[in-house]
């Protein structure tokens, strides 16, 4: 398990990570989501002891990363897919890593097969495509057979087949009981891969929730209505607790109700409807709305209770 408590990182006047607390539990894939610049990489670097927090703490299996005697057996990480010597072959790169960490040689062959690089093991890694580099980085993360995996945007550079492959891999690693923490800025991708989500915006926690609840909580179903009696219908809907936004003289966008309720209410009051349609926000839209709210919130008041949403 990974546990962050009040984790904060400031770079001069920039607060990249702001009082972040969350737990990442074993046996499931946890997606770490946020728009570009939200502070994901900074957080992961602190989890891995690559950056020191300005305040707060983060532990893996109860200890800070640096306190683990054999970290590669505890935590596998992919942070920067370019972090290898380009002149070495894929196998040489992994052998060097295995050797310096007391990992048996046979693991090199095993992980290369596992990530689909078995056939190119002898090729110079410097000539690899971005997708192949990502696979090599994942192979390195798996080398010590660790119970905890931390991957920063592993989908970057992968083709559609690679994306399906990594999705399956992450799920199978979680099903084996491992802790899998994977960052992304794509809600749609995480919705298909993760069981749980930690969402941040501007370094602050916005949501710590199951994917199911996130979708249910944030998807805002709208009803669009066109009627010549817009004022009358708006009054009736508001009276029933719905939220009504008038777009123009005849058009309304209604939330907090559903299409059949609007239709029945209109019929009961002999209101003519020219159009009546349900429209649900896509997952990506819900995510953008959640993170946009955090930006507005920051601009408005500058306090930190965004996590309450
Ligand atoms: N070394 C640094 N010095 C100064 N500012 C930094 C440094 N590293 C990150 N930042 C700033 O901290 C904020 C968070 O950056 P971070 O890279 O963690 O975000 P991210 O969510 O990983 O975004 P991306 O998906 O674009 O990588 C940004 O405003 C960034 O400019």
TrEMBL record:
All copies of domain ABC transporter, residue ranges: 2-227
GO molecular function: ATP binding
Keyword Nucleotide-binding recorded: yes
Keyword Nucleotide-binding: yes
Matches recorded under Pfam families: ABC_tran
Entry keyword set: ATP-binding, Nucleotide-binding, Transport
Protein family per UniProt: Belongs to the ABC transporter superfamily.
Protein name as it appears in the record: ABC transporter ATP-binding protein
Listed SUPFAM superfamilies: P-loop containing nucleoside triphosphate hydrolases
PANTHER family referenced in this protein's UniProt entry, alphabetically: ABC TRANSPORTER, ATP-BINDING PROTEIN (PTHR43335:SF4)
Gene3D superfamilies: P-loop containing nucleotide triphosphate hydrolases (3.40.50.300)
InterPro entries cross-referenced by the UniProt entry: AAA+_ATPase, ABC_transporter-like_ATP-bd, ABC_transporter-like_CS, P-loop_NTPase
């Amino acid at each position: 398990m990974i546990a962050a408590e009040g984790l904060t990182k400031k770079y001069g006047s920039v607060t990249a990570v702001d009082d972040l607390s969350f737990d990442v539990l074993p046996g499931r894939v946890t997606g770490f989501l946020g728009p570009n610049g939200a502070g994901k990489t900074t957080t992961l670097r602190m989890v891995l002891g690559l950056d020191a927090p300005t305040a707060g703490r983060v532990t893996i299996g109860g200890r800070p990363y640096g306190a683990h005697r054999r970290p590669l057996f505890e935590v596998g990480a992919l942070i920067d897919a370019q972090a290898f010597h380009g002149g070495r072959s894929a196998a040489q790169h992994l052998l060097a890593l295995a050797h310096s960490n007391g990992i048996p040689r046979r693991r090199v062959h095993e992980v290369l097969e596992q990530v689909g690089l078995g056939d190119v093991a002898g090729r110079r890694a410097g000539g690899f495509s971005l997708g192949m580099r990502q696979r090599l980085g994942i192979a390195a993360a798996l080398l010590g057979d660790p119970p905890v995996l931390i991957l920063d945007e592993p989908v970057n550079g992968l083709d559609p087949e690679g994306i399906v492959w990594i999705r399956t891999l992450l799920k199978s690693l979680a099903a084996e009981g491992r802790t899998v923490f994977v960052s992304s800025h794509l809600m749609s991708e995480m919705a298909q891969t993760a069981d749980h989500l930690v969402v941040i915006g501007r370094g602050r926690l916005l949501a710590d929730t199951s994917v199911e609840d996130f979708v249910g909580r944030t998807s805002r179903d709208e009803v669009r209505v066109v009627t010549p009696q817009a004022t009358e219908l708006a009054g009736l809907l508001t009276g029933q607790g719905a939220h009504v936004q008038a777009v123009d003289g005849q058009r309304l966008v209604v939330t907090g109700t559903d299409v059949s309720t609007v239709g029945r209410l209109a019929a009961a009051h002999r209101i003519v409807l020219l159009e009546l349609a349900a429209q649900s926000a896509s997952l990506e839209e819900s995510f953008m709305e959640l993170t946009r709210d955090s930006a507005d919130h920051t601009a408005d008041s500058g306090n930190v209770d965004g996590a309450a949403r």
